[in-house]
Amino acid sequence: MKKLFIVSASLTLLALTTACENFVEVETPKSQLTGSEVFEDHNTANAAVIDLFAKVRDNGLITGSSLGTSVNLALYADELIYYGTADENVSHIFNNSLMATNPTARQYWNDSYHQIYCANAIIEGCQQALNLQEPYKTQFTGEAYFIRALLHFYLVNLYNDVPYITTTDYQQNRFATRMSKTQVYEQVVTDLLQAIEMLPENYQTPDRVRPNKATVKALLARVFLYQENWLLAETMATEVITSPHYVWETDLDKIFLKESTTTIWQFSPKLAGNNADEASVFIFTSGPPPFVGLNPDLVAAFQSEDLRKSHWINTITDGSNTWYHAYKYKQNTNTGTSLEYSVIFRLVEQYLIRAEARLKQGNELGAKSDLNLIRNTAGLGDTPATTEAALFDDIMLQRRLEFFTEYGHRFFDLKRTGRLNTELSPNKPGWNTTDSHWPIPETELLANPNMTQNPGY
Asked: Which of 160, 117, 46 is nearest to 435 (CA)?
């Protein structure tokens, strides 16, 4: 049987000509379909949505591979040490010496906006479809709104002001201008609220690889936290926490298994029997590390009795030297049946969001309750904090110890709380205050006269 290649324009905001690549590959029905006809049938429309999720999993900001933010923002902040060869690209990230020509900065931008283009194509295709049944149209559109919001959220936190792209109209996109962070957040919230209305309460499959309402609410809680909208952050987090889909897990070795009851949304591996990409990226068996290792300062931040240190960090020594690697994911080979998926959203974040939001609203007792659940699960006693400032510091510490090497949480937390310079300047010789934003890629500046560069580049 022949295969249908649905060709879509690859979004580059600033390119002078469009580039095309395969959007999705599905089995050909009896007659060749055009791009618009794909969305007239729920099978081919569903294939387009699945392909969008695959693109986000395999490339760009949220991939679990060595190209994703779990590695690069951990190097850029203070979670990982680079031990690899003299790769100028990774070295510049680790040494905080990025330039507008950096390949990773360009790749994140291009991959993200191409994925946003695909999301917009799904939204427009579903809206214009005449024969697609309404439940499918609603679900696919809601998933595309969610992905569009998620990617813009990461872009605005990495590059600061960015264009918010809501169309596949190339002529409109090629001269897009940067929107303020406030405007981007407003649009992110709008997209997420639409997604909540469109997505089902229940997961479509037991493995939680397609988002449901609670997945969207989990991201919305994070967005409200970053906006310092404490009441709505608490409200959204509470709605996720009280959802019947999630059960608190006290066994740390089960948190990153594919059946974990604390997983809100995750990516399945590309190939059957494979496991999360993160394991193959972080695990090494002899020193020195071939690529990256955990920063000893991070390891030292754990108390000796902290179970996260003994369960999520592995120690490698040659007798004279000691190195550490992230060990949240433990399967770095094909196991026949996949055991670990890449977890994007998990329940503990919602408790930490709610703890911070409650504290900022003066509810120290509620904040301590949420924080102590996390501390106690890690084998620690209740928080010793007796002041609001000390309690906030403990919340931020627990975020650091929970989310190390997970999609840039550490960098974004330092950034949103104004602690980047305090934490990184003493320990990273290349750090400058303007490093809080990544550079807009030079190729975008050359192609689009409306695009401006961030300070310091």
From this structure: 160
- Could you tell me the two tokens for 290? 């071939």
Condensed to tens digits (0 to 9), the pLDDT of residues 239-267 reads 999 999 999 999 999 999 999 999 999 99
Overall size of the chain counted in residues: 457
- Against a cut of 0.85, is the pTM above it? yes
